Amino acid sequence: MSPSTSATSTPVRRPGGRSARVQEAVHTALGRLMGETTRDKITLRQVAERAGVNPTSVYRRWGDIDTLMEEVAVAALTRDGDVIPDHGDLTADLNDWAGIIAEDITRPQRVRYLRAMVSARDLQVDNCPCMDIRQQQAELMINRAIERGEPAPTSQQVLDHVVSPLYHRVTFGLPVDRDYAVRLVSDVRAMASALTNAGRREH
Prior knowledge:
The chain has two domains: about 15-65, Arc Repressor Mutant, subunit A, CATH 1.10.10.60; about 80-200, Tetracycline Repressor, domain 2 (Orthogonal Bundle), CATH 1.10.357.10. About 70% of the residues lie in helices and about 5% in strands. The chain has helices at about 15-35, 45-50, 55-60, 65-75, 90-105, 110-120, 130-150, 155-170, 180-200; strands at about 5, 85. It is elongated.
């Protein structure tokens, strides 16, 4: 069995041609500016100047810096072609996957993107692309486990008890590492097992 497979999530439609070049230049410019200063000091005009793009085009496409910040953060935190572990055992898959997430989102640039995305939102939203993609990845591993006859948590349980705590701690500057991610996986596996056993006793 292959140790990893690509996620089966539907790829986000991306612009082509000149539009794609503008997007790449703007995303790159914002990333560099975030490495040099704080989010509250960055403006769309600064981004446009650094990207070598007409400011009018940037304002017309993104409207405000918060919209651009969120787009760049989502792109950075949910990269196309993420490889999903496939070790033939759900615990091993989840441990590897959660560890990869922990190592990725604690990189300084990723931390800045994550905090920028959070600060860009002042209202409740119906969905979050980062979490949507993580849920699709979890479902892939869980469905394989169920096909093998393994007891498994739901993808929502994995989001609530593994992924969300990782993002939460990074956002608030609390320590996160692979060992912590593995402990979260152990907790959600134990919880799922307890719920399964309780259901069997009721029947």
